[in-house]
Design the sequence.
């Protein structure tokens, strides 16, 4: 059997650490840790050139790459621990350094002589090679913490740290200082609380205020550099010759606008919580209020294309996320049946306080691309952005035309044009903000909020005579989703593909006015620029509330008598299912969406800021969560 | 201070003259961006906007060019062209700054002339990019002036130092043209006298700069300034019109063995070098640097099917994209109508039907008449430079046994289901199209260099300038030079075919074309520069939008007759620019969008 392509990818990962701890006089102890992480990935990719149509590759090709990255960690901590009567102090000071190194090589050859993973050069072969070595990654941190408690009733704690990242930020901006304080009070241990103890077994009040830093962006963005030019199509524009079949000259240019003032993003959080348990520890309860402010958020700001550059990494403004988390649970035994049922709910509200640090008063993001790598020619909504992030609004609010239903007759529609195209019966009615009868970019408004108001979960655990059952439900209420896939499902695009949903559109075949906007023009022909489906509008904004059985596990633990005869301490057999069913009114595949294509993330941002401005956008390239069934056996020797 | 280990620090680059050359190379290589001459601009955008093509492809972004009323500010090709043209401007600004850096830090004094040549090339290309930007996006040609129709495009005369510098408002039309003209003057001065060796013949010269300057003056209606500059190019550049045979070859670029033929010829003033070598990748999407384009994928000719029928016609690239608009055949003066297929009297029934042994062929009477039309010049011969006629012309591709063989050109298979199929011409593209093999057999790479400026363009601009300066005799003379060359005659000797006046009948008069039928200036510019991405600019500056829509009447992807709205004389400023640039708001958008 001929294989038309073959990939082999191997990844090796090693993580290890050793530590030594020595007790010193004066209640001190010293611990040093040394850690080493090693990652290596090798890939061989052979692509044959079997002919399967006009887009077949003309030549075969082999690509081999090897990546190695290592990290060494040095950590030194000095601890002081002393108890004096009812006072207890634990203080700690330390230093940590992380060195990272990266080495990779990527080689390709076209028109190789033998199919497989070896480079066999022929006269037609063209080679390409790339790779880099960078041992410069360096992060240094100094930190200290003091914990104090009195009589195990009153707790007080403070900490401070200074982090320095030497490759991500430029000179003068590398260090960030972050601190926190917290306090706790075991109310249930107080003398005045004794009479309540039988009812409320434990009650603790705690609060904290602290800050953290984030530096999760690609390195060296504070410097201007020359590198090989890539047009929008990529490396093919990285060279040019000046006579037929002449040698190619490399094309280099400055491809990024540097930002020497890039600095740490800081997250400040205030937290007040109450933990309690009652009724002989059967009932447990936690309530927590938080207010988190992110200042100088690291973001890849889109630059105007007229500048010749695409993105600019910078620190932006202030964002606030605050809310309330609740947990309530009850666990008990009813005869041989044990149970533990808990409910958790989180209410959250997020808002952009200001977009300080940039001159733009709004940031746009999100695209409804069919294929994230192809911005033109194959997309229902062109290069339209879907979300806006602006002072006073929640992050990544949906932004487009507001639709108020469908026109019933042509007379009703006579007063509306969309981007110059006259509307008819069966077209969406758009709210005309500037009243000029033509719906254009000036008539866009906020049409949805992808940040959920309430996130909740239900956790049920049961056990009976060796059987155990665990169920985890997840749910979300009060959230909007932008169903970009619907545009591709209800309208034929490019080569005429669509789904059977098109038969439900207004005035299609024998249909009259339905709930779907018209697809065909009044004379029955297809107009590829139908404004109902190629603009960002609220017809695609849906309620994304859902309740999902996220995880169900049923297991049985075998009795020890049988097993001890074969030296097994215990054995548990279980079946598990993930994402078993979802209750929702959302018409797309899965309302539990990550973030979709974001020009911000495509520039290299990782970590918590990934896709922060494209939440809740359902696009063709996103996969739904998979349903997984697992069977397992745990054995303890 | 640490920096990336795989990039050059601006504190120490360019260090050598080769480094400086790399910086200016980026100004040229950007021309082959997928949204410019690499893939989209000529076949998808310009060919449909001027109705050279009658596309079968219904994507919304495409339809915006067949039917300009459907262009909106989030059109992917409009956004891509804006982005790629401004990336070119940025590359030129980087090259200029690199030249200054090199001169003050590392250059030897003897290198000054060479550094000035680099500067000259960068100024020329910056002017070229701004010329394209202003003509496409500026409000220059939008009629009915109001207080807001003086906006051009944002000007960047250097690399932005801070991100605020990266956000510029639209400049006035006059400021942009002043920049273009002063850049071209500087380029002409810096490149004065330089004749490049054969290894560098694609680089810009003072004559390219002067030709573009003359063009800019004509577009700005400054005819008194234009005429002397254009005459200087005509008299002193050493360029001359090629004979018809070479002229016809120069739009294919290679001979049957793949060798370059008639490239960098006697009439080329500025040309983009394109080699048929994708370096192991897929045209402009290969992962390695190359010197190719893939326009041929979009406007391939169609060959007769392996079974000898038109229904199974084989495109030499992607099928169902561009098709040669029938009205163009008529406009060049072809008046023989369409043909029927009749039984092939030479059909050999003992062998299976194939492209070399078809059961049905073109009516031989019609075939004879068509051949006669070529030899007795009743049709403008340039029709046969830009297009190929089914059954009379041939293209080469692999037959079902894998052998390269010449097949007759055929009408595209997707026409078969049309109700009016009998009236459809279905000719194939020839200018810049692949004829010796299918695109995927050659790596997916075009072979033909793309003319960006040539002497015929200068002759026509000089004719236009002379006419407006009151010198009709000179105007008529230069129009006739172009016409004589087209008909295979010596351009400098009067002939019986000459136009007698500036309102004489042209080949388009045969189809009663109300605009080109009796306007030799407009006709010659249309016919000579057909499908080179020029006619759109002429349509806009002469305000022919409505009459062109009326002449072409219908295209496949737009129902009803073509409509025209004057807002289409300028493309919309892309919404992506407005969204990311606080200095350009929806209020600064071109009128009507």
Sequence:
């Amino acid at each position: 059997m001929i294989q038309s392509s073959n990939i082999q990818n191997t990844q090796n990962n090693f993580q290890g650490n050793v530590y030594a701890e020595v007790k010193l006089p004066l209640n001190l102890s010293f611990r040093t840790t040394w850690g080493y992480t090693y990652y290596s990935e090798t890939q061989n990719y052979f692509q044959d050139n079997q002919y399967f149509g006009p887009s077949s590759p003309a030549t075969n090709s082999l690509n081999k790459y090897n990546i190695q990255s290592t990290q060494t960690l040095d950590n030194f901590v000095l601890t002081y621990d002393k108890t004096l009567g009812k006072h207890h102090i634990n203080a700690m000071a330390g230093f940590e350094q992380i060195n990272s190194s990266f080495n990779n090589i990527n080689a390709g050859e076209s028109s190789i002589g033998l199919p497989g993973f070896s480079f066999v050069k022929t006269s037609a072969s063209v080679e390409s090679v790339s790779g880099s070595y960078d041992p410069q990654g360096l992060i240094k941190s100094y930190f200290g913490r003091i914990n104090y408690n009195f009589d195990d009733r009153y707790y007080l704690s403070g900490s401070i740290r200074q982090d320095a990242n030497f490759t991500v930020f430029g000179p003068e901006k590398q260090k960030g200082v972050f601190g926190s304080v917290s306090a706790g009070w075991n109310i249930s241990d107080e003398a005045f609380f004794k009479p309540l103890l039988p009812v409320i077994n434990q009650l603790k009040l705690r609060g904290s205020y602290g800050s953290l830093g984030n530096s999760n962006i690609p390195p060296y963005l504070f410097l201007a550099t020359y590198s090989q030019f890539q047009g929008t199509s990529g490396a093919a524009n990285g060279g040019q010759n000046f006579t037929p079949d002449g040698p190619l000259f490399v094309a280099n240019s400055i491809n990024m606008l540097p930002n020497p003032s890039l600095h740490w993003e800081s997250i400040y959080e205030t937290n007040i919580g109450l933990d309690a348990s009652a009724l002989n520890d059967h009932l447990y309860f936690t309530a927590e209020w938080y207010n988190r402010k992110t200042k100088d958020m690291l973001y890849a700001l889109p630059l105007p294309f007229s500048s010749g550059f695409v993105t600019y990494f910078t620190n932006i403004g202030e964002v606030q996320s605050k809310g309330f988390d609740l947990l309530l649970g009850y666990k008990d035994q009813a005869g041989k049946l044990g149970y533990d049922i808990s409910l958790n709910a989180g209410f959250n509200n997020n808002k952009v306080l200001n977009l300080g640090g940039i001159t733009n008063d709004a940031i746009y993001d999100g695209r409804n691309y069919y294929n994230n790598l192809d911005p033109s020619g194959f997309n229902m909504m062109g290069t339209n952005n879907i979300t806006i992030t602006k002072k006073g609004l929640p992050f990544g609010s949906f932004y487009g035309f507001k639709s108020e239903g469908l026109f019933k007759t042509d007379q009703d529609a006579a007063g509306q044009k969309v981007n110059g195209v006259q509307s008819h019966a069966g077209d969406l009615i758009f709210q005309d903000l500037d009243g000029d009868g033509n719906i254009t970019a000036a008539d866009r408004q906020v049409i949805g909020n992808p940040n959920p108001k309430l996130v909740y979960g239900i956790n049920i655990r049961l056990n009976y005579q060796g059987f155990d059952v665990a169920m985890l439900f997840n749910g979300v209420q009060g959230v909007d989703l932008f169903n970009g896939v619907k545009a591709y499902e209800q309208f034929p695009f490019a080569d005429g593909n669509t789904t059977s949903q098109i038969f439900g559109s207004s005035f299609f075949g024998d249909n009259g006015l339905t709930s779907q906007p018209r697809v065909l023009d009044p004379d029955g022909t297809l107009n590829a620029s139908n404004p109902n489906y190629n603009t960002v509008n609220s017809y695609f904004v849906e309620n994304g509330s859902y309740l999902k059985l996220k995880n169900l596990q049923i297991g049985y633990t075998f009795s020890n008598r049988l097993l001890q005869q074969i030296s097994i301490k215990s054995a548990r057999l279980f079946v598990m299912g993930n994402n078993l069913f979802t209750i929702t009114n959302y018409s797309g595949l899965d309302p539990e969406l990550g973030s979709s294509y974001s020009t911000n993330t495509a520039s290299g941002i990782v970590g918590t800021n990934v896709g922060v401005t494209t939440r809740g956008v359902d696009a063709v390239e996103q996969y739904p969560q998979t349903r997984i069934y697992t069977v397992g056996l745990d054995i303890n020797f | 201070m640490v920096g990336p280990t795989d990039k050059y620090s601006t504190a120490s680059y360019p260090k050598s003259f080769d480094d400086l050359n790399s910086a200016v190379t980026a100004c040229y290589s950007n021309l082959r961006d997928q949204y410019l001459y690499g893939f989209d601009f000529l076949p998808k955008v310009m060919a449909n906007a001027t109705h050279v093509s009658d596309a079968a492809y219904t994507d919304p972004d495409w339809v915006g060019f067949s039917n300009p009323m459907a262009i909106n500010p989030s059109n992917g090709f409009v956004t891509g062209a804006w982005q790629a043209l401004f990336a070119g401007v940025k590359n030129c600004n980087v090259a200029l700054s690199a030249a200054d850096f090199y001169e003050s830090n590392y250059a030897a004094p003897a290198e000054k002339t060479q550094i000035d040549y680099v500067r000259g090339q960068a100024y020329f290309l910056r002017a070229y990019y701004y010329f394209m930007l202003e003509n496409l996006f500026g409000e220059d040609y939008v009629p009915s002036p109001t207080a807001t129709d003086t906006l051009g495009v944002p000007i960047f005369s250097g690399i932005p130092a801070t991100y605020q510098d990266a956000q510029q408002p639209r400049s006035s039309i006059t400021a942009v043209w002043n920049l273009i003209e002063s850049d071209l003057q500087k380029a002409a001065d810096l490149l004065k006298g330089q004749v490049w060796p054969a290894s560098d013949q694609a680089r810009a010269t003072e004559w390219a700069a002067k030709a573009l300057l003359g063009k800019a003056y004509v577009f700005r209606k400054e005819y008194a300034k234009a005429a002397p500059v254009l005459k200087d190019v005509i008299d002193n550049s050493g360029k001359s019109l090629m004979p018809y045979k070479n002229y016809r070859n120069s739009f294919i670029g290679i001979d049957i063995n793949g060798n370059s033929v008639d490239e960098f010829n006697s009439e080329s003033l500025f040309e983009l070098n394109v080699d048929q070598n994708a370096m192991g990748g897929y045209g402009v999407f290969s992962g390695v640097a190359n010197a190719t384009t893939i326009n041929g994928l979009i406007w391939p000719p169609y060959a007769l099917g392996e079974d000898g029928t038109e229904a199974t016609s084989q495109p030499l690239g992607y099928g169902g994209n561009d098709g040669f608009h029938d009205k163009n055949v008529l406009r060049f003066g072809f008046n023989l109508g369409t043909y029927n297929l009749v039984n092939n009297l030479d059909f050999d029934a003992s062998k299976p039907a194939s492209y070399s042994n078809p059961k049905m062929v073109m009516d031989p009477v019609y075939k004879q008449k068509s051949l006669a039309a070529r030899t007795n010049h009743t049709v403008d011969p340039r029709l046969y430079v830009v297009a190929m006629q089914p059954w009379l012309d041939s293209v080469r591709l692999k037959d079902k046994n894998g052998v390269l063989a010449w097949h007759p050109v055929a009408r595209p298979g997707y026409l078969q289901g049309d109700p009016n199929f009998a009236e459809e011409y279905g000719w194939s593209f020839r200018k810049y199209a692949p004829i010796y093999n299918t695109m995927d057999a050659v790596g997916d790479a075009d072979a033909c260099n793309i003319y960006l400026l040539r002497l015929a363009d200068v002759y026509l601009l000089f004719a236009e300038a002379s006419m407006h300066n009151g010198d009709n005799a000179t105007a008529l003379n230069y129009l006739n030079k172009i016409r004589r060359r087209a008909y295979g005659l010596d351009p400098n000797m009067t002939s019986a075919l000459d136009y007698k006046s500036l309102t004489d009948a042209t080949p388009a008069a045969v189809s009663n074309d109300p605009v080109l039928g009796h306007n030799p200036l407009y006709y010659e510019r249309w016919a000579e520069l057909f499908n080179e991405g020029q006619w759109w600019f002429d349509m806009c500056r002469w305000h022919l939008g409505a009459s062109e829509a009326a002449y072409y009447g219908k295209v496949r992807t737009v129902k009803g007759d073509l409509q025209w709205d004057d807002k289409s004389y300028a493309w919309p400023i892309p919404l992506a620019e407005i969204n990311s640039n606080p200095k350009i708001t929806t209020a600064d958008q071109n009128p009507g969008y």
Residues 300-431 of chain B form one domain. The first helix of chain B runs from residue 17 to 29. Chain B has a mean pLDDT of 92.
